[in-house]
Write a structure and sequence with these properties.
Layout: H1 5-17, E1 22-23, H2 47-50, E2 60-68, E3 85-93, H3 99-113, E4 121-126, H4 130-139, E5 147-150, H5 152-155, E6 156-158, E7 163-174, E8 192-205, E9 211-224, H6 225-232, H7 245-255, H8 264-285, H9 294-312, H10 328-337, H11 345-348, H12 350-385, E10 394-395, H13 397-407, H14 411-420, E11 424-425, H15 427-453
Parallel strand pairs: 1-2, 4-5, 10-11
Antiparallel strand pairs: 2-3, 3-9, 4-7, 6-7, 7-8, 8-9
Bound molecules: adenosine-5'-triphosphate and magnesium ion (3 copies).
One magnesium ion is lined by residues 170, 194, 197.
């Protein structure tokens, strides 16, 4: 149908191709850019062009870009609109057209091409960007009350701490126009969904935070494919679109539950599984294997969260054959099946992906069961410790560290389990333990290096314990 995820993607690309854009393939999830860990937006592959470092090959382009946003991990399943893995449709101008065309085409795409009713659309503009306000209001006739001026957090877009940036203007869809036009908050997830962001890229943000005007004025846009699919398919969230739902159904089948009849907490778990499975399949396909540092840790953390979440639902592999009870490869097969029009390479890499997942799952399960028992004990103690006092229950950083270090529990998982019981974690002391460990392993590193130089040891003996910390996992400075 016209509204399948595949059709929506194709219609976007055809629409812009008909307006002179060159359709280009998605770039890898691993960016060629030291300022961001993973590809967070369609513009990344064009950054050197925007900055004037390499000449443009075409005046304008359109893509469907695979993206990962680790800053949205906590939002997965909690909001109806965030995944960690999603596809961003984008049209880009490299010093070719600017605001006027970008706005006109975005409007035409949304209303004529996708058929959204004009009176359901709301617009945000950067607070002092009168020119953009006028283009929406005077040229396209959008009533003033449906154009909101928002501040830097929402309407000034930066790809990283430094780099190309500029004011932006966003399109929102209104699910509840009957709620009226007074006291409206476009951030209200129960009423609106932001689906298209138009960035008027005209500055380079420097190390000292200053904005240097770019030689050319560029356009960078992003339209969330799953969000448009959710609107057009009239389902309550991105996860129930044809792009993701088959994975949730497969997980439900393995857990022996029905998605439709499940309670909210079960649905959330199925959404987490569906999202994270997509993320890890595409990340491994692009060459990121689970490890304890950087991107590899993102994969490891996502995989471990799926394993744990699946176990909470009673998901089990068949326990026989070469999967040895692993269920991630079963779900991954479904993700791979759906990958054809997203990234044709995934299918050709499927045996490597399935094997990597199987290995990592089995490795984690070995320690998980012991770790789970210990965590239960620690949480019970934390509650016992404060009995009869006014103190709030708290798990010590030492305990969280033991779970991390010996049992392979990502601290985020420990935190999640503890929070489910109303128990917090002493993250300060956890960080101190982490730092101690880092220094120890650095010392071990140095010793091993010396030993290797003396020919007495093998490089493989170097412990793989370096950890760069939670914060470095975030795509820095993405304006949320
Ligand atoms: P939000 O405010 O909803 O978090 P955003 O402002 O962070 O979105 P942008 O950086 O403007 O998003 O990205 C452009 C588009 O990409 C968004 O308008 C949306 O359609 C889509 N998008 C962004 N983040 C996600 C996500 N986590 N999951 C799905 N789609 C997303
Ligand atoms: Mg936005
Ligand atoms: Mg936003
Ligand atoms: Mg965001």
């Amino acid at each position: 149908p016209q509204t399948s995820g595949d059709a929506i993607r194709q219609r976007f690309l055809d629409f812009y191709a008909a307006r002179g854009h060159k359709v280009l393939p998605s770039a890898s999830l691993v960016p060629d850019d030291p300022t961001v860990l993973l590809t967070i937006a369609g513009m990344l592959q064009f950054k050197p062009i925007f900055l004037g470092k390499v000449p443009r090959e075409v005046p304008s382009a359109a893509t469907s870009q695979k993206c990962i946003r680790t800053n949205d991990i906590e939002n997965v399943g909690r909001t109806s609109r965030h995944q960690t893995f999603f596809e961003m449709l984008g049209n880009f101008s490299f010093g070719d057209y600017f605001k006027k065309e970008a706005i006109k085409w975005a409007w035409e795409l949304s209303t004529s091409e996708y058929g959204l009713p004009a009176d359901r659309l709301w617009i945000s503009v950067y607070e002092d960007d009168d020119e953009t306000f006028a283009l929406w209001h005077d040229e396209l006739g959008i009533p003033k009350e449906r154009i909101k001026r928002l501040g830097e957090d929402d309407n000034f877009w930066t790809s990283g701490v430094t780099g190309p940036c500029g004011p932006c203007s966003e399109l929102y869809y209104d699910f509840h126009p009957e709620r009226g036009t007074s006291d409206v908050d476009l951030g209200d997830d129960t009423r609106f969904i932001e689906f298209y962001n138009l960035v008027f890229m005209q500055y380079n943000k420097k190390d000292d935070g200053s904005l240097e005007p770019l030689k050319q004025k560029n356009i960078d846009t992003g339209l969330g494919l799953e969000r448009m699919a959710r609107i057009l398919q009239k389902v309550p969230n991105n996860y129930e679109t044809d792009l993701i739902f088959p994975i949730l159904e497969k997980a439900a089948e393995l857990a022996n539950v029905s998605y439709a009849l499940a309670d909210d907490s079960t649905k959330t778990k199925l959404k987490i599984i569906g999202d994270h499975m997509r993320a890890v399949v595409y990340l491994i396909s692009d060459g990121v294997n689970p490890s304890n540092i950087g991107r590899g840790y993102v994969v490891r953390r996502l995989i471990r969260r799926v394993v744990r979440t699946g176990r909470l639902l009673g998901v089990k592999g068949d326990g026989m054959g070469d999967l040895q009870g692993a269920f991630l490869p079963i779900l991954a097969k479904k993700v791979i099946e759906l990958s054809t029009n997203i990234d044709a390479d995934v299918k050709t890499r499927s045996s490597r992906i399935l094997e990597e997942l199987r290995r990592e799952e089995l490795r984690f399960v070995l320690t998980l069961e012991r770790g789970e028992k210990l965590l239960e004990q620690m949480l019970a103690d934390a509650l016992l410790n404060i009995q009869g006092t006014e103190t709030a229950p708290c798990l010590s950083g030492k305990d969280a560290f033991i779970l991390y270090d010996t049992y392979g529990f990502p601290v985020e998982i420990t935190k999640e389990v503890a929070e489910e019981r109303g128990i917090s974690i002493d993250m300060n002391s956890f960080d101190i333990e982490m730092e101690k460990q880092r220094q120890l392993s650095q010392a071990a590193h140095d010793t091993v290096k010396l030993a290797v130089e003396n020919g007495a040891n093998h490089a493989e003996d170097i412990p793989d314990t370096e950890f760069l910390g939670y914060n470095t996992l975030h795509s820095k400075a993405v304006v949320e």
